[in-house]
Amino acid sequence: MPDKSNKPKTKRLKLDQNSSLLDIAKNVKKLDITKINLSDIKKEKNIGFEITHKDTNSKARIGLLKTVHGDFETPYFMAVATKATGKYIGPDDYNTCTEGIICNALVLSLRPGSSQIKKFGGIHKFMNYDKPVFTDCGGFQMVRESFMQDRSKKGIHFKSPFDGKRFVLTPEKIMNIETDIGADCIMMLDDLAPYGSTKEEFERSVENTHNWGTHSLILHSNPDQFLYGIVQGGFFKDLREKSAKYIGSLPFDGLAIGGVAIGETREEMYDAIHAAVPFLPENKPKHLLGVGSPDDIVECVSLGMDTFDSIFPTQNARHGTIFTWDGRLDLMSAQFESDENSIDANCTCLTCKTYTRAYIRHLLKLGEGSGRRYAQIHNLQFMKDLMQKIRLSIKDGTFIDLKTDIIKKYRKNIDPKNLIGVKVKR
Ligand SMILES: [Zn+2]
C-alpha cells in the first residue's frame, strides 16, 4: 500500500483584500473573487485625472488626463486606428490632425502579435506616435465584422479573420494583450449584446461584463496604464443604472459607456447615457465608445463625457461627406466640379492649405487612395478644432451657444423625428 502521508498536501490559498495584487493575480483562477472587497484594493499609479473647469449650464467639464506620455486636456476626440493605422492614413497624419487614437487590442494580438509590439517597447514606439493611445478590447469590431461566434460566461468566442482559427477571448487574455501593447488607457473585456436583443440577453451581458470587470481589475497591475471599466445594459434604464452603480463602485481608473451607437435611435442612445452617468463617480475620466458625429459629441459633452472615439468622421470623409463650420458638405455633388475654393478657407490642415474642392472631388470620384487620405485629414482636423472650441467655450462660459450652433447646423436636412436628443433632461 502506498504511504498516503508522503503525498504532497495541497497548499491552501489564503488570499484576501490584504494580499498583494501579484499574489491575487497569480491565483485568480483558484480564487473566489466574491470574497474580496475590490474597493479596498489600492494600486500605486503614475497617472491621474483632474477636473480643471466646469460648465455652469450643463455637466460639461474640462479635465487633465495625466499620462506617462504627457498631460492632455479633455474633452478630446480620438481617431480609430484599428490595426495601428487607418485606411489610407497613418501616424504622420495622426501626429498633425489628432489629439489621440484608439487601437483594437484583439486585432493587434492576431497581427502582428502583442509580443511583437512589446519588443518595440509598446505601441507608441512601434508606430512612432506620441499622443495618448487607447486600446479597446476588440469585441465590438469583431461583432461588427461578424467574426464573433458565441458569448459565454468564460469569454467571447471568435473566429480569426486572418486564418479562421477559433479561440476564446477571456478577461485574463485581454489584460495580458493590453499590457503588452502598452497603451495609455485600456478597456476591460465587456460583453456587448447586439441591438434588438431581449432584456434577458442584456441582463446576461451585464452579468458577464461585471464578472469580467472584477477579474480585469485583479489582473491588471501596470502602474502606467488607466484601466477603464465599461458600463453595459443596452437600452433598459434599470440595467444601465445597475451596471453604472456596480462598475462605478469599483476602483477603475476610468469609466466607459459601451453598447451604444449600435443601431438605436438618437433618443435611445441619449437615454442610455443619461441613465448611467449620475451613478458614475464625477472625479474619474469618462469615455463614450463609438460616438463621433459633431452634433452627438456636443450633446454628450454636455452630459459629462470626456473622451470619444468613432469611425464616423473618417468613414464619412472616404465617401465624400466633409465636415465644415456650416455643417456637412457633400463633395460628390456636381456643384463642386469646378469649385476652386479649398474645403474650408480657415482650416489649417494639409488638404485645405494645398488643394481645391474640385481636385479632392476628382480624386474621390476616381476612388483614389490619395483623395480618401486628403478628405480624412480634413475631417480629423475639423474634429480636433471642434474639441478645442468646446474646451475654450467651457472656459469662457459659452459652451451652450456652441452646442446649439453645432446641433442646428448638423441636424438640418435630417428627419425632424430624429431630433429628440435635445429633449434629454439634465
Ligand atoms: Zn481642412
Description of the structure:
This protein is α/β, with parallel strands linked by helices and 426 residues long. It folds into two domains: 48-311, Alpha-Beta Barrel (TIM Barrel); 317-421, no CATH class. The chain is built from 16 helices and 16 strands. The chain has helices spanning 21-26, 91-97, 105-110, 114-119, 123-127, 139-144, 171-181, 199-219, 237-249, 266-276, 294-302, 312-318, 350-354, 357-366, 369-396, 399-410, and strands at residues 48-54, 61-67, 70-74, 76-80, 101-104, 133-136, 148-151, 156-159, 166-169, 185-187, 226-231, 254-257, 286-289, 307-310, 321-324, 327-330. The strands form four sheets. The protein has an eight-stranded parallel β-barrel, surrounded by six helices. Helix 9 (237-249) links the parallel strand 11 and strand 12 (254-257). Helix 2 (91-97) packs parallel to helix 15 and helix 15 (369-396) packs antiparallel against helix 16. It is globular, with a radius of gyration of 23 Å. It starts with 20 loop residues before the first helix and ends in a 16-residue tail after the last helix. Residues 1-15 and 416-426 have low confidence and may be disordered. Bound molecules: zinc ion (ZN).
Look at the structure and name the CATH superfamily of the largest domain: Queuine tRNA-ribosyltransferase-like
CATH fold-level assignment of the largest domain? TIM Barrel
* Domain module count: 2
H/I helix tally: 16
- Summarize the biggest pleated sheet: 8 strands, parallel, barrel
Query: Which hetero ligands occur in this complex?
Result: zinc ion
Total DSSP E strands: 16
CATH class of the largest domain: Alpha Beta
Strand coverage percent? 15-25%
Low-confidence stretches are: 1-15, 416-426
CATH architecture label of the largest domain? Alpha-Beta Barrel
